[in-house]
């Protein structure tokens, strides 16, 4: 989800090179989504202890 929305936003922001903007946006969005998901999973695991 984060990678898809990041790709769309990256393509919109970088009007000169939409492909590169999409790739960078996808990487940033995917990384952010992973980090947020990992944080939530760790928080749930601690609450269950």
Note down, in words, how this protein is organized:
With 49 residues, this protein is mainly alpha-helical. The protein is built from two helices and no strands. The relative contact order is 0.19. It has helices spanning 2-13, 18-47. The chain has one domain (2-44). The model has no long low-confidence stretch (mean pLDDT 90). Helix 1 (2-13) runs antiparallel to helix 2. 86% of the residues lie in helices and 0% in strands. The termini are far apart.
Percent helix among the residues?
A: over 70%
> So what's the oligomer here?
single chain
Average pLDDT score: 90
Low-confidence stretches: none
Order of helices and strands: HH
Give the class from helix and strand content and strand pairing: mainly alpha
Number of domains: 1
Strand content: under 5%
Task: Tell me the number of strands.
Answer: 0
Span from first to last CA?
A: 29 Å
The major β-sheet equals:
none
How large is the count of helical segments? 2
Shape: rod-shaped
Q: Rounded to an integer, what's the Rg over CA atoms? A: 14 Å
Would you spell out the secondary-structure blueprint of this structure?
Blueprint lengths: L1 H12 L4 H30 L2
Helix pairs in contact: 1-2
């Amino acid at each position: 989800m984060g990678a898809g929305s990041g790709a769309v936003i990256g393509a919109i922001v970088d009007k000169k090179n939409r492909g590169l903007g999409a790739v960078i946006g996808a990487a940033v969005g995917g990384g952010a989504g992973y980090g947020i998901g990992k944080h939530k999973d760790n928080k749930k695991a601690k609450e269950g202890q």
